[in-house]
Amino acid sequence: MNHTEVLTRYTANFVDELAMNGLTDAVISPGSRSTPLALTIAEHESIKEWVIIDERSAAFFALGMAKKTKRPVALICTSGTAAANYYPAIVEAYYSRVPLIVLTADRPHELRDVGAPQAIEQIKLYGDYVKWFQEMALPEAAPDMLKYARSKAARAFFMAKEGNPGAVHLNFPFREPLVVDFELDHLWGKVSQTSYLPTFEGEKHLTSNQLTELSQLLQNKAKGLIVCGPQTDRYLAKAVTKLASKWELPIIADPLSQLRSGEHKKQHIIDGYDAFLRNETIREELKPDFIIRIGAMPVSKAYLFFVKQHMDALQIVIENERGFREPTGNKTEFIFANARAVCEALTEVDNHTQYRKEWLRKWQQMNAISKKHFSRHTENPITEGEAMRGLIHAIPNHSSIFVGNSMAVRDLDTFFLTTEKHIEVLANRGANGIDGMISSGMGAAVHGSRLTLVLGDLSFFHDMNGLHAAMHYGISATVLLMNNNGGGIFSFLPQANDKRHFEALFGTPLNIDFQHVIAMYGGHYDRPQSEEEVKMAVQASYQRNGLSVIEVKTDREANAIWHRDKWKAIEEEIVSGEE
């Protein structure tokens, strides 16, 4: 058996096993050393290949796709720094728990550390940011080695999605020649209907004794609070709102909690907390006896201050899998079990504590004041908050938002109020970076509901080549670009008081006309001047195919003043007790 046949059969068995386990999408960064993997994936009828030229963009594209589909996506690249460009997305995958299967091609062992071109140290390149690493054996076609290839593929797929999902990394040393032969008989090996390593994984549930112990912890604690941070279980909403109704508790619902939209009951959902929890006096008035948190820490810094201020309150964090996401350092009881199942079980528990209706009513009244102020229209030049409000009004039912970091996600927190629409919200809130946002959004846009990407001008600038995927594959997506000519979030921080260095180091104005960029990538461009025009532009974008970019130009300083005025008015009304 010659080299080409050996290479072909080894690679084909590996790729076929990925498909057998459920891989449907692979993102390929073009290169020579990865030829066997790239060609074989492109040849397999069960896998859709996406060719993204820039490696950093490719990795975030795969990340966005995996976030949306909630299943592993493969990434393939050649040797050298191509693999290093995957690093930022792999870091994000680690912290936001997204399954990726990273397949890097490498020089064979004799060409490493000898000055050969395009050869870097790729062994455990991503350190602890991957769940599992495997240096693959050099290709062989003996029956045991084909079984080896399949077992590694099956394990890679399982490891990427088991427990807390994340990236896995397999490094493939390939000798030349690199071209494979698809004319071989029985190319894909033995035909099978199941995985080489079939696995069955059950959900974690609390025992009756554990439920009793948890119930006893909450005895005689009347002022409780449920907090739902960023999480992806779309079925959690009904379970947690039913629990809140039974126990008469308010629910702080992060915009990424998937609780603010849908048909479940929302009387207990508090969505305006970020505004009134900024005030220390109000935070003290709302001192809780206990907090039950599900999901990651909420986006809101005001909520972070609230938790730190009440560090003596009993805090319980429910995680579906093991993980210690508690940045305040407060004493915390961790429950590692399926959050939806825990809520359903607690609803049936006979808890004798009489939760105070006035406690719930107080949260609801403050929430109503916040929503009233943020719903008022002004005649001033459009702000980012008003643009976000226009988007939420216009976005269709059963659609998705991929929101950027910095000010974008914070304005979503403020203006994404409860709605009967079904709106899935995605974001890169693992490492909270601004890199790869367009690519992540485009990756998320290729499957499922129509997607709107909301981000600032620095995030847009940082990943403009991510627009190439939209042009190349005809992806239909809407981008709401908030352009305040720089880093708008810094206007809310103490650095803004340093007038000498602020603009150069933090404001960082770009002074770019993005209309030319959008035209270069074949997108449709709009620049609305008011909230009503934003609504019309957004609605029109959903009626056309391809890329639509809606740019809203705002003033950083005026935007900060507008937000502060709103927060001040809300605080004053709550503190004074006026309606």
UniProtKB/TrEMBL annotation:
<protein>
    <recommendedName>
        <fullName>2-succinyl-5-enolpyruvyl-6-hydroxy-3-cyclohexene-1-carboxylate synthase</fullName>
        <ecNumber>2.2.1.9</ecNumber>
    </recommendedName>
</protein>
<dbReference type="Pfam" id="PF16582">
    <property type="entry name" value="TPP_enzyme_M_2"/>
</dbReference>
<dbReference type="GO" id="GO:0030976">
    <property type="term" value="F:thiamine pyrophosphate binding"/>
</dbReference>
<dbReference type="GO" id="GO:0030145">
    <property type="term" value="F:manganese ion binding"/>
</dbReference>
<keyword id="KW-0464">Manganese</keyword>
<dbReference type="GO" id="GO:0070204">
    <property type="term" value="F:2-succinyl-5-enolpyruvyl-6-hydroxy-3-cyclohexene-1-carboxylic-acid synthase activity"/>
</dbReference>
<dbReference type="InterPro" id="IPR032264">
    <property type="entry name" value="MenD_middle"/>
</dbReference>
<keyword id="KW-0808">Transferase</keyword>
<dbReference type="Pfam" id="PF02775">
    <property type="entry name" value="TPP_enzyme_C"/>
</dbReference>
<feature type="domain" description="Thiamine pyrophosphate enzyme TPP-binding">
    <location>
        <begin position="438"/>
        <end position="552"/>
    </location>
</feature>
<feature type="domain" description="Menaquinone biosynthesis protein MenD middle">
    <location>
        <begin position="220"/>
        <end position="403"/>
    </location>
</feature>
<comment type="pathway">
    <text>Quinol/quinone metabolism; 1,4-dihydroxy-2-naphthoate biosynthesis; 1,4-dihydroxy-2-naphthoate from chorismate: step 2/7.</text>
</comment>
<dbReference type="Pfam" id="PF02776">
    <property type="entry name" value="TPP_enzyme_N"/>
</dbReference>
<keyword id="KW-0479">Metal-binding</keyword>
<dbReference type="InterPro" id="IPR029061">
    <property type="entry name" value="THDP-binding"/>
</dbReference>
<comment type="subunit">
    <text>Homodimer.</text>
</comment>
<dbReference type="InterPro" id="IPR029035">
    <property type="entry name" value="DHS-like_NAD/FAD-binding_dom"/>
</dbReference>
<keyword id="KW-0460">Magnesium</keyword>
<keyword id="KW-0474">Menaquinone biosynthesis</keyword>
<comment type="similarity">
    <text>Belongs to the TPP enzyme family. MenD subfamily.</text>
</comment>
<comment type="function">
    <text>Catalyzes the thiamine diphosphate-dependent decarboxylation of 2-oxoglutarate and the subsequent addition of the resulting succinic semialdehyde-thiamine pyrophosphate anion to isochorismate to yield 2-succinyl-5-enolpyruvyl-6-hydroxy-3-cyclohexene-1-carboxylate (SEPHCHC).</text>
</comment>
<keyword id="KW-0786">Thiamine pyrophosphate</keyword>
<dbReference type="GO" id="GO:0009234">
    <property type="term" value="P:menaquinone biosynthetic process"/>
</dbReference>
<comment type="pathway">
    <text>Quinol/quinone metabolism; menaquinone biosynthesis.</text>
</comment>
<dbReference type="InterPro" id="IPR004433">
    <property type="entry name" value="MenaQ_synth_MenD"/>
</dbReference>
<dbReference type="GO" id="GO:0000287">
    <property type="term" value="F:magnesium ion binding"/>
</dbReference>
<dbReference type="InterPro" id="IPR011766">
    <property type="entry name" value="TPP_enzyme_TPP-bd"/>
</dbReference>
<feature type="domain" description="Thiamine pyrophosphate enzyme N-terminal TPP-binding">
    <location>
        <begin position="13"/>
        <end position="124"/>
    </location>
</feature>
<dbReference type="InterPro" id="IPR012001">
    <property type="entry name" value="Thiamin_PyroP_enz_TPP-bd_dom"/>
</dbReference>
